[in-house]
Amino acid sequence: MLKFSNIVKSYKTGEVVVDALKGVSAEIKKGETVALCGPSGSGKSTLLNICGLLDDDYKGEIWLAGKAVSKDKKVMTQIRREKLGFIFQRYNLIPVMSVYENVEYPLLMLNMNKRERMDKVVDIINKVGLKDHISKRPDQLSGGQQQRVAIARALVKRPEIVIADEPTANLDTSTANMVIDLMRDLGNDLGCTFIVATHDHRMTDRCHRVLNLADGNLSAFNPYETHRRAG
Ligand code: ADP
Ligand code: ADP
C-alpha cells in the first residue's frame, strides 16, 4: 500500500546542516496500523510530513499502491486530497467553523455534491459519538471531543492512509483510550492504513507493528514478540 525507500532529508539553517533522515525504508500493508516511535528530534514529524506528501524536498521514493509518487506539487496535492487523512496533536480544527463544517471541509475539496457530503458527514459524526454537538464550534468542546472531530474529519472521505502525529499527547488517560479505540475500530471498519507517531504505550500496544526511529535511522520490532520475550 505505502512504501518508502531510502528517504534522506537534511535541514539547512545557515551553515548548520541537520541530517534528519539518513536513508529510511519500510513497506506498510493495506489496513495495517503502524506506530512510529523514537525520542524527540529523531525524525518522526519529518517522516510523517514526507509520507503525507506535505514536503517534496527530500531524496528517495514514495510508492502508493504500487506507483511511485511524483514530486510535482499539483500531483501531490491531488493525491493528498483524495487518499490521505491527517490527525494532529493540537487537533487543528478551524475555530470559526462548526463541527459539521470542519468535518465537511475535506469533501468540499473533492467537488462532491451537497447531498452526498451531508450523508457522509452525518454518518461519521454519529460514529464518533458527536451527534448532539454537530452545530457547536471547537471552543465549545472538550479536548477529547475536539480530537474526535479531527478523527471524523480525517476519516470522512475514507482515505487509504491516515497520518497521525501524537494524537493522544494532549489527552488524559481515559479520553486517550477512547480516542485510540475509536481510531482502531473505525479504521478497521473503513480499511484504512494508519501511521501514527506516538510515545503512548496504550497506542503502540494496539498497533500491528512498531517502527523505531533513532537519530534518523529506522529499525522495526514486533511489540507482541517483545512482550513475549520480556514476559
Ligand atoms: P521528531 O518529530 O521525532 O521530534 P523532527 O522530525 O521534528 O523529529 O526533527 C528531526 C530533526 O530535524 C531534529 O534534529 C530537528 O531539530 C530537525 N528539524 C526539524 N524541522 C526542522 C526545520 N524546519 N529546520 C531545521 N531543523 C529542523
Ligand atoms: P507539530 O508536530 O509541531 O505539532 P502539526 O502536527 O501541527 O505540528 O503539523 C505538522 C505538519 O503538518 C506541519 O508541517 C504543518 O504545516 C502541516 N499541517 C498542519 N495542519 C495541516 C492541515 N490541516 N492540512 C495540511 N497540513 C497541515
UniProtKB/TrEMBL annotation:
UniProt keyword list: ATP-binding, Nucleotide-binding, Transport
Pfam family, one: ABC_tran
Entry GO MF terms: ATP binding
Stored InterPro entries: AAA+_ATPase, ABC_transporter-like_ATP-bd, ABC_transporter-like_CS, ABC_transpr_LolD-like, MacB-like_ATP-bd, P-loop_NTPase
Sequence ranges assigned to domain ABC transporter in this UniProt record: 2-230
Highest taxon listed in the record's lineage: Bacteria
Family: Belongs to the ABC transporter superfamily.
Protein name: ABC transporter ATP-binding protein
Natural source organism: Pseudoalteromonas fuliginea
